[in-house]
């Protein structure tokens, strides 16, 4: 299985290698930095033993447009799988490749956390649009306790399990299933598509008949989630309500 891992980071090229994602995956994938392929000024491809890493550094563009371009790149270069990952996620699972392989035998798109059911309503967050009994998966979060680094494990529900919507911090996808069914990220989401892109992508995939699921993959996320609802977020939320209802 040929795998492309990709991420978008606001860090510069020189600083991109300090992301949690790169540091964690390089420990067991051993990227060959000597064979860096500079695709564009803001894109770099690194070859690895088990998978390749495509870094979109100095990234200030539309997230959804970049993700769609990465999917097309994966298709054109004959990758079987694309994994879209936040740059502040540490993937600590040495069995990542075998787990992704097993997961994609059953599902077309796999994440770490999600919900098996959802009502399209406010607040438009994946875990608040469904009942807690519908939550699935697990993610570890990095934080502080009395000034020291601490980790908290959030167990949302059983995993592996089928879901309706997925959190976008980690999305492993069968490239051919996305291409054949014309499943894309919505590029019309306001302000670059940094909010609600994952839920709309999940709903579009479900409408196309693809199966989504969560899988137990050990990863640590630096972000606690949405901390405040900015005007940009609320505008994205209103767009989401209309777009989501059109997909049902």
Euclidean distance between termini CA atoms: 33 Å
Beta-strand content bin? 25-35%
- Major β-sheet profile: 9 strands, mixed
Number of helices: 6
- Report the order of strands and helices: EHEEEHEEHEEEEEEEHHEEH
Low-confidence stretches: none
What class do helices, strands and sheet pairing give? alpha+beta
Query: Per the principal axes of the C-alpha atoms, what is the gross shape?
Result: globular
> Main sheet: which strands, in order across?
2-3-4-1-5-13-7-14-11
Q: Return the average pLDDT rounded to an integer.
A: 92
Q: Helical content, roughly?
A: 25-40%
Give the C-alpha Rg: 17 Å
Strand runs, count: 15
Give a description of the structure:
This protein is of the alpha+beta class and 248 residues long. The protein is built from 6 helices and 15 strands. The strands form 2 sheets. The chain has a 9-stranded mixed sheet, sandwiched between helices. Strands 6, 8, 9, 10, 12 and 15 form a 6-stranded mixed sheet that branches. β9 (135-145) and β10 form a beta hairpin. α5 (197-207) runs parallel beside α6 (231-247). The longest helix has 17 residues, at 231-247. The model has no long low-confidence stretch (mean pLDDT 92).
């Amino acid at each position: 299985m040929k795998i492309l891992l990709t991420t978008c980071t606001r860090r510069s090229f020189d600083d991109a290698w300090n992301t949690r994602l790169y540091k964690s995956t390089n420990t067991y994938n051993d990227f060959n930095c000597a064979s860096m392929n500079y695709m564009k000024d803001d894109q770099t491809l690194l070859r690895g033993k088990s998978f390749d890493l495509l870094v979109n550094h100095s990234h200030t563009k539309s997230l959804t447009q970049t993700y769609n371009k990465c999917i097309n790149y994966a298709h054109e270069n004959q990758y079987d799988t694309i994994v879209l990952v936040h740059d502040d996620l540490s993937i600590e699972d040495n069995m990542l490749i075998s787990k992704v392989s097993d997961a994609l035998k059953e599902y077309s798109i796999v994440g770490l956390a999600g919900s098996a059911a959802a009502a399209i309503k406010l607040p438009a967050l994946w875990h608040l649009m469904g009942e807690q009994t519908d939550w699935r998966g697990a993610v570890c979060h990095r934080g502080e306790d009395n000034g020291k680094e601490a980790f908290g494990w959030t167990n949302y529900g059983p995993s592996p399990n089928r879901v309706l919507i997925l959190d976008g911090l980690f999305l492993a996808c069968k490239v051919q299933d996305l291409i054949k069914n014309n499943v894309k990220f919505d590029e019309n989401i306001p302000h670059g598509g940094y909010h609600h892109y994952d839920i709309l992508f999940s709903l579009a995939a479900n409408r196309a008949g693809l199966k989504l699921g969560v899988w137990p993959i050990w990863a640590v996320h630096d972000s606690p989630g949405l901390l405040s609802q900015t005007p940009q977020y609320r505008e994205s939320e209103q767009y989401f309500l209309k777009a989501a209802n059109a997909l049902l």
